[in-house]
Amino acid sequence: MHYDLIITGMGLSGLMAAKTAVEAKQKVLIVGKGMGSLCLFSNTIDVLGLLPETMKVRDGLSQWIKDHPEHPYGKVGLEKTEEALSSFNSFFPPPYAFQSKNETNSLIPTGAGTLRPTYLIPSTMMKGIIFKEKKTLIIGFKGYKDFYAYRLADLFKCRGVTLSLPEGPQAEISATAIARWMEQPTFREFIGTEVKKQIKDEVSVGFPAVLGVNDPMGVRKDLEKRTGASIFEIPVLPPSIPGIRIFNQFKARLLRKGVTFLLGYSVSKVVLRKKRCETIEVFHPPITNSYSADRYILATGRFMGGGLKADWERIYEPLFDLPVHQSPTRQEWFQKAFFNAQPHPIHQSGILTDLSFRPIDEKGEVILENVWVAGTMLAHHNFIDEKSREGIEISTGYTAAKKALGS
């Protein structure tokens, strides 16, 4: 079957590319073995978390682009980055929206007991940015091993309690199980009653980020009514329920717009002729199907997503065999100490592209004329230290699709 655009990778960059293309009336296929890092780490939208808390993100990003022209933001530019963030937000209207406070980064509490700077925050977490100004109760659940209410309460100088759950009093409980239970009125009635018993003089209550998958704001509103307290979510360890919400919202809306999804499968082979990709092959046991397109976007992520791989000698891109910008030897991938003042060079590794996000070699020559690259697999960024993962994914996915379509 032939498409206008085929996207490989279902992380945030691939989804943004699909959104951009289908809204331009293109016939789009997106292929991926999973939902990228969304279900693992994405709770909020980081754009550039290393900025001072009082600085407008727009101002900080503008200066960053001037100082780092080779960075993905440098190639996207300020205007396109803002367009991309606005496009992302258009898929999340109220009540479950993403927003910033005063257009700056805000510190939100995390399940690790830290305060983390981030830019766009889902509605269920917004009340958490001022939790230290109010008396707060932290709620945990017996059997849920990824969130320790008493530990967080000690670190945040507030009070914590752990509630027993009727659904699994002796069992180890997952975040996805609690999120499903939270969508049942009888379960919320039980939780609301138990929390209200525990409240003393607290005015806000912090829950792990498990307030349902499909209607988290409805869950929060119901619990606030039952408890009489202001409720907010706290990001926790993987899996990320807020990340799953993002993926589900994108998938549902893109399907309605006509995007074809091949979820659970990865591209097994690409067929190249000279400087063009002609087809991709996807293995559906026991058969292999071929798909062709005028244009292709590669958005398979870094090491965790399988977009980049490493052996004892080099880092490589396994699908198109694109050259990877990297340190000359394996010994130079890392600093001498794990906790080093300077970032590890391996985090700057990735695919080199021109200003249109087409892959190039070290001499600047375009390798494939109808392939574009997006997301964290790009070179010259360190999203971990920069706290820029989602911003890079959103802006480059959006821009790569725009460039692929000639706009």
CATH architecture of the largest domain: 3-Layer(bba) Sandwich
Cα shape: globular
The CATH topology of the largest domain comes to: FAD/NAD(P)-binding domain
Characterize the largest beta sheet: strand count, sense, and whether it forms a barrel.
7 strands, mixed
Strand portion? 15-25%
- CATH homologous superfamily of the largest domain? FAD/NAD(P)-binding domain
Strand segment count? 19
Q: What's the CATH first level of the largest domain?
A: Alpha Beta
Helix-residue proportion: 25-40%
Give the radius of gyration. 22 Å
Separation of the first and last Cα atoms: 25 Å
Number of helical runs?
Answer: 11
Structure description:
- With 407 residues, the protein is an alpha/beta fold.
- The chain is built from eleven helices and 19 strands.
- A hairpin with a 5-residue loop joins strand 4 (106-109) and strand 5 (115-118).
- The longest helix is centred in the middle third of the chain and has 17 residues, at 241-257.
- The chain is globular and about 70 Å long.
